[in-house]
Design goal:
The protein is 44% helix and 16% strand. It is α/β, with parallel strands linked by helices. It has a 6-stranded parallel β-sheet, sandwiched between helices. The N terminus is likely disordered.
C-alpha cells in the first residue's frame, strides 16, 4: 500500500528573509509592525511574504505584541434563546460591522451555567482575547468586575444592576416605554396592562419604570392586577396575557417589554376571542424584523440594536488601544413605530 506523500513544507521566516535579502530580525519586525524598519526593507519583506504565501506564527506574534487580534462576545443566555431571538442576531450584525477593517476576529461564547461561566472566565483571563463584549447580564453578575480586575478591556451592553462599569452601551428603555403608554392613552386606552421583563435585569426594570411613568403622566393609577412578569420570550407573553385576561377581563391595552412577548400576547388574545386593536391594543419593544409581519402588524418601540453593537465595538477598540472612551455610559435614543396593533 502506497504511503501518503507529505505536503509541501510551510515557508519559514528564514525563507522570507533570504528571498527579501534582509535579516530574520527585519522580517520579524515587519510582521510585528515595528516602526524600526525602512520603507524599502518593509516593501521587500511584504513582497517575499506574498510570493511565498508565508503565514506568521500567531502564537509567536502574540508573545511579541501581547495582542491576540481577537475579541470575545459573551452572551449570558442559553443557546436555545440565543439562536431563537432576533435581538441577538441584530447585536452580532452590529458588532461584526463595527469590527470591519479592524483586523480583529470575533469569538462567540454562550454561557449560562456556573460551570460554563467558570470555564469561560478562565479562558478570557488567560490572554486568549484582547477584549470582551458582554451582553444580557443577569442579577449581580461579577464577571465584568473580575475581567476588569485582570486587565481585560470590557464593554457591557445594558447597564448592570449595581455599580457603574468602565464602558457600557444602553438604549433609552425607560423613555421608550413611556412613549408606548402615552400613545395608548392618546388612543383612549385607560386600563393598560404590562408584561414586564426579567426583574434581575436593568432593562426589565427600566422598561417597567417607563410604563409607570406613562401612567403617572396620564393621571392613571398603577394597579398590580394589571402587571404580569415575563422573560422576553414568546411563550412568556402568551402565558402572561392569559393570566391578565383571567384576572382583568376589562383590560383594553397591553404593553409588553419585548416584541416576542407582544406577539405571544396577541396569540392569547386571539384565542380568547379578543380583537387587536379594537378590543385590546398591543405594543411591543424592540422593533424586531418580525414586528412588521404579524397580524396585525405590531406597534413597537424601536431599539437601535445594531447601532448599539457598533458603539460597543467603538468603545472597546478605544480601550484596547489604551485610551478611555469619551463617556463611560452611552445611551442611544428609542422611538415609537406605529403600526396597526395600537
Amino acid at each position: 500500500m502506497a504511503q501518503p506523500q507529505p505536503g509541501p513544507a510551510r515557508p519559514t521566516l528564514e525563507a522570507v528573509a533570504a528571498l527579501a535579502g534582509v535579516s530574520r530580525g527585519t522580517v520579524s519586525r515587519v510582521i510585528n509592525d515595528s516602526p524600526q524598519v525602512s520603507p524599502r526593507a518593509r516593501e521587500a519583506v511584504q513582497k517575499a511574504i506574498d510570493e511565498l504565501g508565508f503565514v506568521p506564527n500567531r502564537a509567536a506574534r502574540t508573545l511579541v505584541t501581547q495582542r491576540t487580534d481577537s475579541v470575545a462576545l459573551v452572551v449570558s443566555e442559553s443557546e436555545e434563546r440565543f439562536f431563537a431571538e432576533p435581538y441577538f442576531a441584530a447585536v452580532v450584525r452590529g458588532i461584526s460591522a463595527g469590527l470591519t477593517g479592524s483586523g480583529l476576529q470575533l469569538l462567540l461564547a454562550v454561557a449560562q451555567s456556573p460551570a460554563e461561566r467558570e470555564q469561560l472566565e478562565h479562558y478570557l483571563t488567560g490572554q486568549h482575547v484582547d477584549g470582551v463584549l458582554l451582553v444580557s447580564l443577569h442579577g449581580m453578575d461579577t464577571l465584568p468586575g473580575r475581567l476588569e480586575a485582570r486587565g481585560v478591556p470590557t464593554v457591557l451592553c445594558g447597564r448592570p444592576l449595581a455599580g457603574r462599569p468602565a464602558a457600557c452601551v444602553d438604549a433609552d428603555n425607560r423613555g421608550g416605554a413611556r412613549q408606548a403608554v402615552a400613545h395608548l392613552v392618546a388612543g383612549g386606552r385607560r386600563r393598560i396592562a404590562a408584561i414586564r421583563g426579567p426583574a434581575d435585569m436593568t432593562v426589565g426594570q427600566e422598561r417597567h419604570a417607563g410604563y409607570l411613568d406613562g401612567l403617572a403622566e396620564a393621571g392613571l393609577t398603577a394597579d398590580d392586577s394589571l402587571v404580569e412578569p415575563g422573560d422576553f420570550s414568546l411563550d412568556a407573553g402568551t402565558a402572561a396575557a392569559t393570566a391578565l385576561l383571567a384576572r382583568r377581563p376589562d383590560l383594553d391595552a397591553i404593553v409588553a417589554a419585548s416584541d416576542a412577548m407582544a406577539i405571544g400576547a396577541m396569540r392569547s388574545l386571539r384565542a380568547a376571542g379578543r380583537r387587536v386593536p379594537e378590543d385590546v391594543a398591543v405594543v411591543g419593544f424592540e422593533d424586531s424584523p418580525s414586528a412588521a409581519h404579524t397580524d396585525p402588524p405590531l406597534t413597537t418601540v424601536h431599539q437601535p440594536v445594531e447601532s448599539m453593537g457598533r458603539e460597543m465595538v467603538r468603545m472597546l477598540l478605544t480601550r484596547i488601544a489604551g485610551g478611555t472612551p469619551d463617556e463611560s455610559l452611552v445611551i442611544l435614543p428609542t422611538h415609537l413605530v406605529v403600526r396597526d396593533s395600537a
